[in-house]
Amino acid sequence: MKKMLYFWAAYLLFFALPFPCTLYYSIGYPVEAADRTSPAVATVWLALSILLWALLAAAYVHTLLRAPFRAQARTRAIQRAAIRRRARVVQAQDTGRLMRGWRVWNLTLALDNLSGTPIQDQMLAVDSQPQLQRFVADNELDALLSDDPGGYPNVVLEGAMPEIDRGRLLRRALIGVVLLAALAAYYAWCWNDPGQGNGQGWTFLAPWHPLLVMPACLCGYLVLGRLFTRMAGIDGRAEALNYRGIGVEARVLHVRQTGTEINAQPQLAFQLAFEDRQGTTHTVTVRKVVSLMDLPRVPRERARILYHPDDPSQVLMPDL
């Protein structure tokens, strides 16, 4: 799975970074006098370029640098709320990472959510007491749930000591500084390059220049990634529903393909009918991207769902 993610990341980055440069410096370089823009228009393109790169820098800081501190604060909030559950270890996978010499495990846990519905979820845990062999399949652990699910994490092990992997955080910060320095160097080179700046300021800037195309592509990837996670049901809203939802069995009224595909995987629309705890019947449509390997498991008559206790129109199908 990781190899496939790395492949697609490299594939998308190729079309966002080297490809625009190759096209521009093969076709539009050097910039002819007739192709230059006015200083006013060039200032607009420059401002837009800086804005797009600033948005990407903010996303980098928010996602990779601030996220560990948010997770640490959220872990402490979960410990203060102290909503206790017994969690069974379904699967434990060694990530190969070490933190202060202790192994980091990816645990799949089975537990009851805030509504008392059995669910499963994954979490990372540091095994600071390997002699106890706690992370063995079918072992039971004391866990704590968030009273405001949807962020990360939603569940922690009782007694966990929230720490930040400062080595990994430092590497991310250094990578960010190197990328920022490389970007500044590219701006400076374009300004001084005889084939672009040539003493005429930023008048060489145009919508097809790499300084605009590259950040526009990367920002587009971020938007598409957000849409993909929402369509695939793996965003924060789905996480919140998983930990808050009430489990019931719904009747499958109709299943159809929407015509949308994500990475060659079809999106299906399920029309479902179910009764909530008050006995009220609801009919909802749930769209779900289903792997081709899971198509034989698509429910045709009955399906297990989770619905939001305050808004039954919000429904999750956890088994697909």
Plain-language structure description:
A hairpin with a 5-residue loop joins strand 2 and strand 3. The strands form 2 sheets. A 5-stranded antiparallel beta sheet has the order 3-2-1-4-5. The protein has a 5-stranded antiparallel beta sheet with strand order 8-7-6-9-10. The chain has helices spanning about 1-15, 20-25, 40-65, 65-80, 165-190, 210-230, 235-245, and strands at about 85-100, 100-110, 120-125, 140-145, 155, 245-260, 265-275, 280-290, 300-305, 315. The protein has about 325 residues and is of the alpha+beta class. The protein contains 7 helices and 10 strands. It folds into 3 domains: about 1-65 and about 170-230, no CATH class; about 85-160, Beta Barrel (OB fold (Dihydrolipoamide Acetyltransferase, E2P)), CATH 2.40.50; about 245-315, OB fold (Dihydrolipoamide Acetyltransferase, E2P), CATH 2.40.50. It starts with a helix and ends with a strand.
Largest sheet: 5 strands, antiparallel
Order of helices and strands: HHHHEEEEEHHHEEEEE
N- and C-termini, Cα separation? 18 Å
**Overall geometry:** globular
> What is the subunit arrangement here?
single chain
Total count of strands: 10
What percent strand?
Answer: 25-35%
> Mean of the pLDDT scores?
89
Low-confidence regions? none
Question: Any idea what the radius of gyration is?
Answer: 25 Å
Task: Please give a quick description of this structure.
With 320 residues, this protein is an alpha+beta fold.
